[in-house]
Each structure stands twice: as C-alpha cells, then as structure tokens.
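Researcher: I'm preparing a figure for a lab meeting and need a structural model of a single chain. I don't have an experimental structure, so a prediction will have to do for now. The sequence is pasted below. Please return the structure as tokens so I can convert it later.
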Amino acid sequence: MAAVSVRVTGRVQGVAFRWHTEVEARRLGVTGWVRNEVDGSVLLHVEGDEVAVDDLVAWCHHGPPSARVEHVAVREAAPTGATSFTTTG
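Model: Understood. Here is the structure written out token by token.
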C-alpha cells in the first residue's frame, strides 16, 4: 500500500483536470481525492497499490489534452483508509 500527496502546477484549472483525474484514478483502482487550490494548482491525495499510484502520478505529468502541466511535486503521505476516489472543493 502506497500513499502520496501530489501538487500539479501549470494550466490545470478550468481544463477538466479534476474530472479526468477521477476517471483515471477509478480506472487504476486507487482511492483518495483531488481538488483545486486557490494558488491555481491541483492537489491530490492518492493511495493504493504502489504500481497503480505510480501510474496515476505518471499520468499527472501530462494530464488531460487541454492541460499544460509545468511541474508535479510528489511526497509520501499517510494512508487515510479512503474507500473511493472523489473530487472535492
């Protein structure tokens, strides 16, 4: 079980980044959440199988077609026991 916090910066708000992230997370079978931050970034908490978590982080480096990702910062996080992946805020 892996858990990470991911901050994605660039043109990532107003381009359906959260929706696409939720779809990709569900496809990969990971749990957690995604939300927009006031600074224009998108923040995720992701947990699950290490390979699946890594795959979602890799996806974040490009995001959906209309996004322009500039930077992805990843740090380890404590698992919360999330049972689904949701969009918040």
